[in-house]
Amino acid sequence: MAKKLIDLEFVSCDLCGSERFVERYKKPDTWLWQHDYEFSVVECMNCGLVFLDPRPTNESMSQFYPHDYHENRDSKIHHERYKNQYSYLGNINNHGKMLDIGCARGDWLNFFYDKHPYWELYGCDTFSKKVNYENITFTNAPLPSCNYKSNYFDMITAWAVFEHLYEPIVYFTEVNRILKRGGSFIFLVTNSESLYGKYSDVEDIPRHTYYFSEKTLLKYAGIVGMNVEEVVYSNEIFDGRGYKNIEMLFRRMLGISYLAIKNKRINRLQSLTIKLAHFFDKLLNKINLEKNKPTGIMICHWKKT
Ligand SMILES: [Zn+2]
């Protein structure tokens, strides 16, 4: 079968509008390997936002999501994740309205429903065609097209969703519009200022298009007028440790490309160096250097004031 072409588009900074960037690194889609093309991850020289540029257009991006990407999330391992997510919600009233952005098949919302059956549940997802539960009011559309009422929700969640967006500022603005005053927005994103985000090349490229940090999120919150209540750095929901920092350091120093490794075009010395790097990376992981603050996953709690 012939390979689909990638339609690429250049973007300006979503946070400040600047077009002055420096390249951080390049990485191909090492998960699906449909193409050898190396995508560029850039950092805005003005505000520090990190993102993919150029990126596949919206139409072209669908080839990077296999058809079963959102399925099978009702398993035991996911239930453990939902338990962890739940611990970040804080005090919950008996009644309320909750929205999960990027809800997939609705398993997280249903987990919440088991504990709070008097809440009204809403979910939206661009890619998922339906949810598996009748207690969820579902919309198969991106958030800005859902037309929810203003000041409507008590709580909005988004778990590992905002990395995938095309215009985060539009989503943050919309979240602020549809939340009630005093309502909470709890979301999980990767941290671009961690070893994971900066050196280890762990980001899921090109499916991850934006890489946030505490600093850039504070600027987003200021623009849309929301209050940052808390930022927690944690590896409990997803592991945000950069587990191959030394390997990537060695690979950069020796100029060993992703393609060279994929096509096994490395010599014995390079292969030995990578093995040595694995050893040091394992050691680093044992020390658990990134247990808290520098880790690659942030759980953020914002409030509408
Ligand atoms: Zn910027």
Automatic annotation (TrEMBL):
Gene3D superfamilies: Vaccinia Virus protein VP39. SUPFAM superfamilies: S-adenosyl-L-methionine-dependent methyltransferases. InterPro entries: SAM-dependent_MTases_sf. Pfam families: Methyltransf_23. This is Methyltransferase type 11 domain-containing protein. It comes from Kuenenia stuttgartiensis. The lineage of its organism: Bacteria, Pseudomonadati, Planctomycetota, Candidatus Brocadiia, Candidatus Brocadiales.
